[in-house]
């Protein structure tokens, strides 16, 4: 193949199309547990998370409530993935081996939000959220109806050392995790004869870059456990979430909608909430309680 500007432009268009096909084919679950937020700066502040007041009867002037400033920010990070194409392969018209590679490049970029979101959920016991505590913790500070600070837990206090599983309320505008995007994945290339990679190594470079990051929203919308996933532990987690109150005794009204598990717990989870009857023939009162979402990144 004669290599010139036109040839390289045509090649870029073909590789870019394969990249986009890969992006579109990437399976994605992250939007089920994370809220998508666009960003226009290096970081976004989420200091308003947490202490939101209750509605009150309007008597006299409005009462302006100052939002608690927690100083919680999500700073965007740069990400990239780059591959090289040997000039000799272009010269020999041996390009069929690279089209699947570009598609894989696109799929990797498309899966990146899921990688970030589910990896963060898995690290919830060691990653801070807006109140300065780990997202999954036993002592989140909450002001009770008497104005006294007390501790609330969104982690199974009974311990256990089994495979972790999570209950999430994803029905609200803000989900338990925030996926923040500053720059969408962008396909780029270095193919000019004067580029160092071409001049020194006869290698054309193609890659993708983006800017984004993830962080936690309301810990109150989540519950985690390492207890054996059975009816008793699921009922305990469900009850704990629905009984939870916010500052000053505010009714939060959170109710789990998703049971999020690694693949190892998928069938146990499905049996709990999908089976019509139990082994003894009795009706399964847990049927339809929540949906099950399994993701290999939690393994």
What do these coordinates show?
The structure is a single chain. The protein has one domain. The protein is built from six helices and twelve strands. It has helices at 5-25, 87-91, 99-122, 196-201, 231-243, 266-274; strands at residues 34-38, 43-45, 73-75, 77-86, 140-143, 149-152, 165-168, 177-190, 203-216, 222-225, 258-261, 291-294. It has a four-stranded mixed β-sheet with strand order 1-8-9-4. A four-stranded mixed β-sheet has the order 10-7-11-12, with helices on one face. It is elongated. It starts with a helix and ends in a 5-residue tail after the last strand. The mean pLDDT is 90.
Task: Give a short summary of the structure.
The protein is 26% helix and 24% strand. It has helices at residues 5-25, 87-91, 99-122, 196-201, 231-243, 266-274; strands at residues 34-38, 43-45, 73-75, 77-86, 140-143, 149-152, 165-168, 177-190, 203-216, 222-225, 258-261, 291-294.
């Amino acid at each position: 193949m004669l290599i010139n500007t036109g040839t390289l432009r045509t090649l870029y268009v073909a590789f870019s199309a394969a990249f986009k096909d890969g992006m579109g084919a990437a399976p994605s679950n992250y939007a089920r547990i994370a809220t998508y937020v666009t960003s226009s700066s290096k970081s976004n502040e989420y200091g308003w998370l947490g202490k939101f007041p209750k509605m009150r009867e309007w008597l006299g002037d409005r009462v302006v409530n100052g939002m608690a400033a927690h100083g919680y920010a999500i700073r965007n990070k740069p990400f990239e993935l780059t591959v090289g194409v040997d000039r000799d392969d272009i010269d020999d018209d041996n390009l069929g081996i690279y089209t699947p590679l570009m598609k894989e490049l696109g799929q990797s970029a498309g899966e990146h939000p899921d990688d970030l979101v589910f990896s963060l959920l898995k690290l919830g016991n060691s990653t801070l959220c807006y109140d300065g505590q780990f997202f999954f913790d036993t002592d989140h500070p909450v002001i009770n109806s008497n104005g006294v600070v007390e501790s609330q837990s969104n982690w199974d206090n009974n311990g256990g050392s089994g495979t972790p599983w999570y209950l999430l309320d994803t029905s609200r505008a803000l989900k338990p995790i925030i996926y923040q995007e500053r720059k969408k994945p962008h396909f780029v290339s270095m193919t000019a004869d004067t580029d160092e990679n071409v001049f020194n190594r006869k290698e054309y470079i193609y890659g993708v870059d983006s800017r984004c990051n993830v962080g936690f929203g309301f810990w109150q919308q989540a519950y985690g456990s390492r207890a054996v996933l059975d009816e008793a532990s699921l009922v305990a987690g469900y009850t704990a979430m629905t009984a939870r109150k916010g500052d000053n005794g505010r009714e939060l009204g959170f109710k789990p909608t998703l049971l999020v598990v690694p693949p190892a717990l998928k069938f146990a989870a499905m049996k709990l909430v999908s089976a019509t009857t139990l082994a003894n023939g009795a009706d399964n009162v847990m049927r339809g309680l929540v949906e099950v979402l399994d993701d290999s990144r939690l393994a």
